[in-house]
Design goal:
165 residues; mainly alpha; Arc Repressor Mutant, subunit A; 2 domains; 0% strand
Length: 165
């Protein structure tokens, strides 16, 4: 089989066409439209991707990402399907499981902060409840004492009224 040589302009146009295709159109159909081998087109795509993207080895390891970078990465990667997510991760030198772990870490930290806020609020409510119970007990005792004094006062008046008569 004779090996065919393509011009640089043809390669650029073919790569632009394959990267600009719709989701319904496959790489094979683009290769058929251009009357070329799908393997050749895929090789050109790989070489184009290597030239456009920095090597992941230059990216820092996931353990060195600061929380602000991790949050930004979670926002950027949110909503991507699995294939797009893996491509996005490869471009940054991290793994999809790193993103999953970061999401869990953020959720746990938020829950812990929320739990601390709730426990502080609960503590304040308990203190207020205890104070109200003390006030109620004090007022009950004062009311009982006032009632006892009124009963004694009535008995005293009744006793003196009986002696005067």
């Amino acid at each position: 089989m004779k090996q065919q040589h393509y011009s640089a302009e043809f390669k650029e146009q073919a790569i632009a066409k394959v990267f600009g295709r719709s989701k319904e159109q496959s790489v094979e159909s683009v290769a058929d439209d251009l009357s070329m081998s799908k393997g050749t087109l895929r090789n050109w795509m790989k070489m184009s991707n290597r030239a456009q993207k920095p090597a992941p080895a230059s990216a820092k390891p996931s353990s060195e990402w600061i929380p602000a970078e991790r949050l930004l990465a979670l926002q950027e990667s949110h909503g991507l399907d699995e294939e797009e997510l893996n491509a996005w991760c490869r471009g940054r030198g991290i793994f999809a499981h790193d993103l999953t772990q970061w999401r869990v870490d953020f959720c746990e930290a938020a829950a812990a902060a929320n739990g601390r806020a709730e426990s502080e609020e609960l503590r304040q409510l308990r203190v207020a409840n205890l104070q109200l119970q003390r006030d109620l007990t004090r007022k009950d005792k004062a009311l009982a004492e006032a009632a006892a004094l009124l009963v004694l006062q009535k008995k005293y008046r009744a006793l003196w009224a009986a002696e005067d008569a």
